[in-house]
Amino acid sequence: MLLSALPILTALTSFLAADGSPAAAPVFRVFRQPDDRLVVWDPRPELGVGVHGLPEHHARLIRDVGLRLIRKTMYWYQIETTEDPGRYDPAALAEWDATVALCERYGLALLVVVHGNAPGCGFANREESYRRFARFVADMARRYRSIRYWELWNEMDVGFTDLFGARDDVPMLERGRLYAEMLKLAYPAIREANPDAWVLTGGIAQPWGDFVRGIYEGGGREFFDIMNIHTYGVPVSWAFLGRGLACREIIKRHGDADKPLWNTEFGLDAGNLVQAWGYPHDRQPPQDDGDYFDQEMIRQYGACLDAAREQGLYQKVFAYQFHAGNECKPEGIEDRARLPEGRTLDDYGFGWLRRDGETPRPVYDWLRELDFNAPLRAQAAREVTVEYPLPGDWRPIGHETQRRDVLAAIEGVRLDSLYPAAIALETR
After folding, report:
1. CA-wise closest residue to 111 among 269, 293, 282, 262
2. For a 10 Å CB count at each end of the chain, is N or C smaller?
């Protein structure tokens, strides 16, 4: 156990001050993309939530808990339904038109995760499939210009698609290299379609990093803006912190110390609690399982959000899921669980709502009272001066700049807490 913890402890030191306390959070962070731009971002952590469907009353509840960001899946195969590239189903597009309009009415920004092979796409013709995918996401980015965050695939290191070798026992490092080949096509296509868009890697599920290393070794570094992982496990806070620190150390070693890291899925359900720790009512004194599941979810969320704020590890974190049941159901759990009359195990799943999709769980009320995002809403935008080492023949476009030795002091940069700011550069 001690040996396995050593990489995490090593990574943690970079987020601590000299006295061992959490380091003071910077006002902003900056990285340079090779396409001649600086990217400035607000490192204060923000909570979002994933959704499956989005009826209007869910949009209202999400807004009322103080969130600005939701994550929703766009299934490629539901829109491009034939083997003919570029032919899109009008009904599926109309549903997305309505979703985008609903989010705009409620002031919710979308992170769209795109995955699911279109007909005719697979590992055997992966190069052609990567090109088709790049065309598809570019067309979607062009159609939905208000969507500025695009996440490319979901847990593609371990499943949900065969395009990177997950179903063919391809070594994890090579899967990352293949994913980088896709990024090299999709990233410039999205940026050309909508220069205001930002590209996330798909949420990476593998905990210890070979897939991430493969992205860098495959030349993918300059073809994404935000690294992105998922962190499941019990206790949730251990995976949330430990896997994030391990990933941060890898991207730091590859020159991306200042690139944002997001966590787009973390959470807990009753089935995983039982699998990890057994039935709560088996303990002394006996406990009501339903109350225990509700309260343990609050405790786990609280530990994760405390870690997010104290460590400054992630810029955005997304709970899984606003309305979702259990995805882990150990044998016999339904027969043995002691739940209130009328409740099923799915009333204690990942979601913030009960199974009926109407009734908030205690975690929802707790989050509304906490209002984790209040500091970002209170100071949603500010103007900053960015100091960055630039060679003397490079200058920012559209900003007054003062030279201070090797540093260029770039004035009047508008820092938005929701989206990064891009500073275009040119050489004399």
Report:
1. 262
2. N
3-state secondary structure 34-76: CCCEEEEECCCCEEEEEECCCCHHHHHHHHHCCCCEEEEEEEH
Which residue carries 């508008």 as its tokens? 414
- Summarised one tens digit per residue, pLDDT across range 349-366 is 999 999 999 999 999 999
Prior bond of 286 cis (ω within 30°): no
Going by their DSSP bridges, the two strands 381-389 and 29-33 should be labelled as unpaired
What pLDDT, in 10s, does the model give residues 373-401? 999 999 999 999 999 998 888 899 999 99
d(CA 311, CA 145): 33
Q: How confident is the model at residue 26 (pLDDT cuts 50, 70, 90)?
A: confident
Q: Secondary structure of the chain: what % helix, strand, coil (to 5)?
A: 40, 20, 40
Is residue 245 within 8 A of residue 12, CB to CB? The reply is: yes
The CATH architecture one would assign to domain 45-382 is Alpha-Beta Barrel (3.20)
- Which residue's structure tokens are 């997010």? 308
**Span 128-183, pLDDT tens digits:** 999 999 999 999 999 999 999 999 999 999 999 999 999 999 999 999 999 999 99
- Give the separation between CA 133 and CA 179, rounded to whole angstroms: 12
Q: 3-class SS at 331?
A: coil
Q: In this predicted structure, what is the pLDDT of residue 12?
A: 34
pLDDT at residue 10, as a whole number: 29
Q: What is the pLDDT of residue 391?
A: 85
Q: Domain boundaries in the chain?
A: 45-382
Nearest to 261 by CA among 287, 300, 231, 218: 231
Distance, in Å, from the CA atom of 30 to the CA atom of 410, rounded to the nearest integer, reads: 12
Contact 141, 150 (CB under 8 A): yes
133-146 core/surface letters (b: 16 or more CB in 10 A; e: else): bbbbbbbbbeebee
Q: Which residue has the tokens 């150390």?
A: 249
Q: Which of 312, 211, 305 is nearest to 257 (CA)?
A: 312
What is the model's pLDDT at position 334?
85
Q: How far is CA 374 from CA 71, 379, 409, 416, in A?
A: 20, 9, 30, 15
Q: Which residues are 316's β-sheet partners? A: 46
Rounded-to-integer distance, Cα 315 and Cα 149, Å: 14
